[in-house]
Design a protein that fits this description.
Layout lengths: L8 H20 L10 H13 L3 H13 L12 H18 L9 H10 L3
Helix pairs in contact: 1-2, 2-3, 2-4, 3-4
């Protein structure tokens, strides 16, 4: 969560790395610490992607969480919070694309504005 709270694009990417490590460690049983992921591990990452207008990344996490089958981790199954994050992400994407001068932007320029929303 601390990496997400940096408010930087690289911070969210770093948080994703850590979250993926937790998934890997829990799925392989490689840790004697019995570390298991919780939804709270992923929620800040999903929220960051949503509020910055990246529905593709929210959907990737939805698919990842859906595919996790580690013991009895039913709390990781996607629920209404993921759907709400997808809606927010698409709304933010629309808002970013429809800002002033959006009609004259190329799709690449519009995507750069979306990416710049992290900075």
């Amino acid at each position: 969560q601390a990496w997400v709270r940096t408010g930087r694009y690289k911070g969210v990417l770093r948080a994703e790395e850590w979250a993926k490590r937790v998934i890997e460690t829990a799925s392989t049983g490689a840790s004697d610490l019995h570390i298991y992921p919780r939804f709270q591990t992923f929620h800040p990452i999903i929220a960051a992607w949503a509020y910055c207008g990246h529905p593709e990344r929210v959907k990737q996490w939805d698919d990842t969480l859906e595919g996790i089958s580690i013991g009895n981790l039913s709390e990781l199954k996607p629920d209404g919070r993921i759907m709400a994050a997808l809606i927010v992400a698409w709304r933010e994407r629309q808002r970013l694309y429809s800002e002033e001068n959006a009609a004259t932007d190329s799709p690449l320029q519009a995507q750069e504005r979306v990416d710049a929303s992290f900075d």
